[in-house]
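tokens incoming
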């Protein structure tokens, strides 16, 4: 019976963990949906959505690739994706006459700018949040451009009506050149109005998201040639040999000290044995004197 209890408890624990992960992911997505759905439900208004997320991740490159894949899967597009490594410190420690140990501490950061369909914005933000271990900043902006769109629509109608009126006007030949210029000017304004409408419509359909990913400090060790000793050898052979001898002797002394530290249990046991031996020897001498 006891053989079956442990597997059953393990299965229950795994199921509960999976349920907790599902609840957490659902909660993250619902939190993102609250801010975005509040604007999407306004059917009589139009909004431009912009979002910014800044956070720390475990693996910058892996998270960046996952986010880029999510953008493509949701029908969006990537405008900027840049990964940089910031070197925080670099030290070189000689370990022999020919080699040295190079120690680097650096941090990897990524800057991503994407456009995703507005209807999938909450889902995309939830996917980004799943990659982040520590969130620094989260911003969601919704700009109401309802009246701006209506203004462009009214401008287009007015220009079309004016263009039709000019087309029906009969004027003398000497004034036709002036009429052509007016028509060209109206057509120019009409084209720009239509272009502005197209740009505005694209901004409504696709939400802009900027993401900054910050990695943890990474430690890296490499074995490199000992250039300092090489230069020193070329400049002064005797001084190079003296310095090498001093460094090698110091390393040997360190090795001896470390080795003695490893032997401390033996030293203590030998000391205890010596004390016991001395006490036993003193008692034995006293017994011998008393017997005599």
């Amino acid at each position: 019976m006891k053989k079956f209890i442990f597997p059953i408890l393990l299965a229950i624990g795994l199921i509960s963990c999976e349920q907790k992960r599902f609840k957490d992911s659902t909660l993250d997505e619902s939190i993102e949906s609250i801010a975005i759905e509040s604007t999407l439900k306004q059917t009589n208004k139009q909004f431009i959505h912009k979002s910014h997320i800044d956070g720390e991740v475990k693996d910058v490159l892996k998270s960046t690739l996952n986010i880029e894949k999510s953008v493509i899967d949701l029908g969006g597009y990537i405008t900027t994706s840049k990964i940089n490594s910031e070197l925080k410190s670099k030290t070189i420690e000689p370990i022999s006459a020919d080699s040295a140990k190079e120690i680097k501490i650096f941090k990897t950061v990524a800057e991503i700018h994407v456009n995703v369909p507005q209807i999938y914005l909450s889902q995309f933000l939830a996917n980004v949040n799943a990659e982040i271990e520590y969130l620094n900043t989260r911003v969601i902006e919704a700009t109401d451009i309802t009246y701006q769109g209506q203004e462009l629509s009214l401008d287009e109608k007015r220009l079309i009506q004016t263009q039709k009126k000019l087309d029906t006007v009969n004027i003398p030949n000497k004034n036709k050149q002036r009429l052509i210029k007016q028509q060209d000017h109206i057509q120019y304004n009409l084209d720009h109005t239509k272009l502005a409408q197209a740009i505005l419509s694209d901004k409504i359909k696709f939400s802009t998201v900027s993401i900054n990913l910050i990695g943890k400090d990474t430690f890296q060790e490499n074995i490199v040639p000992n250039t300092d000793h090489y230069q020193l050898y070329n400049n002064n052979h005797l001084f190079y040999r003296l310095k090498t001898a001093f460094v090698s002797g110091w390393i040997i002394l360190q090795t001896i000290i470390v080795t003695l530290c490893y032997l401390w249990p033996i030293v203590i046991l030998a000391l205890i044995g010596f004390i016991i031996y001395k006490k036993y020897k003193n008692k034995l001498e006293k017994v011998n004197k008393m017997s005599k």
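note: Residues 148-202 form one domain.
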